[in-house]
Amino acid sequence: MKIIDIIKSEKPTLSFEVFPPKTSQSLESVLRATDEIAELRPDFMSVTYGAGGGTSAFTANIAAHIQNTYGVPALAHLTCVSSSREKISGVLDDLRERGIENILALRGDVPEGLDAERIDYRHASDLIPVILERGDFCIGGACYPEKHPESATSQDDMRCLKTKVDSGCDFLTTQMFFDNSILYNFLYRAREAGISVPIVAGIMPVTNALQIRRIMAISGSVLPPRFIRIVERYGDDPEAMLQAGIVYASEQIIDLYANGLRAVHVYSMNKPEVARRIMHNLSAIIY
Ligand SMILES: Cc1cc2nc3c(=O)[nH]c(=O)nc-3n(C[C@H](O)[C@H](O)[C@H](O)COP(=O)(O)OP(=O)(O)OC[C@H]3O[C@@H](n4cnc5c(N)ncnc54)[C@H](O)[C@@H]3O)c2cc1C
């Protein structure tokens, strides 16, 4: 089933993300976590793509497993900046043959020392037309409520986002954010810029203090004072931080639905317990 048809329905949707292992040794534990999350019957599940594409077969395998075993629609991520045209064509053919209908088209982070002369794809907007040519896929793109770290200004970032959407995106999924007012402001600016595709809000439940330092480094997200106080108070107590992080994310999601957002994607990071507890907190809201 295509994700665009799922998120356009009247019902609020909730989806979860898993990431593939780096080596086949840990495939079994990732599959175990994937199974537990899929058993919760989210509206769809996404499977990330390892930077560089070396583990692309894991992404395809896990996505096919989710669909074939649980009937849960899968969204396979695909990055392009480190890949040749041949590699991308091969991955797309494989996904199509396995019945994967949904792809999140991404540039990926540019690896240090990448030879600019030899890049086949500079932006996600270069990848999207290739995906369209290669099959009847539903295509998502990434967006950044607090702008992409490489963009000089939010206006520049929004202009590029419009180009990306116009190249053939059916929907967008946001980078994580911890203050919903940032998302509401972004949605307003996106609509003003003429972007009318559905936008799925990406929520990251922060369940340990270490995670926050990584998040800050990767995304540059603003942490609201209310959230910082929670981390300061509970960051050294794993059980308390887990509980507080899940409650914080659940409150964010309830506020998003209450304000008219239809689709929320949870960066569940291969943690079935986190997915289960969030779903429990929303049990009367999402059905
Ligand atoms: C929802 C989500 C899922 C992700 N999943 C993965 C994953 O599975 N694997 C992974 O490795 N990474 C993943 N990432 C991280 C992502 O790969 C990085 O953020 C990467 O740096 C940018 O990818 P993009 O597709 O947004 O790039 P782009 O859309 O190409 O944008 C990158 C930068 O270039 C600018 N830009 C875009 N188009 C143009 C243009 N036509 N001309 C000039 N400038 C332009 C943008 O404003 C931005 O500054 C994910 C991010 C998000 C938000």
Characterize the structure shown:
With 287 residues, the chain is α/β, with parallel strands linked by helices. Helix 5 (124-134) packs parallel to helix 6 and helix 9 runs antiparallel to helix 10. It is globular and about 50 Å long. Helix 7 (180-192) links the parallel strand 6 (171-174) and strand 7 (199-203). The model has no long low-confidence stretch (mean pLDDT 95). Helices cover 47% and strands 14% of the residues. It contains eleven helices and eight strands. An eight-stranded parallel barrel has the order 1-2-3-4-5-6-7-8, surrounded by five helices. The chain binds flavin-adenine dinucleotide. The site of flavin-adenine dinucleotide has 24 residues, from strand 3, strand 4, helix 5 and helix 6. Flavin-adenine dinucleotide (FAD) is lined by residues 48-49, 51, 77, 79, 104, 106-109, 123-125, 142, 148, 150-151, 157, 160, 163-164, 173, 175, 202.
Compact summary:
The protein is an alpha/beta fold.
Which compounds are bound in this model? flavin-adenine dinucleotide
Class by SSE composition: alpha/beta
Task: Label the overall shape.
Answer: globular
**Major sheet, described briefly?**
8 strands, parallel, barrel
Radius of gyration: 18 Å
Q: What is the helical fraction, as a range of percent?
A: 40-55%
Mean pLDDT: 95
| Side-by-side strand order of the widest sheet | 1-2-3-4-5-6-7-8
Q: What is the rounded distance between the termini? A: 19 Å
What is the count of helical runs? 11
Q: What percentage of amino acids are in beta strands?
A: 5-15%
| Poorly predicted regions | none
How many beta strands in the DSSP annotation? Answer: 8
Secondary-structure element pattern, one letter each = HEHEHEHEHEHEHEHHHEH
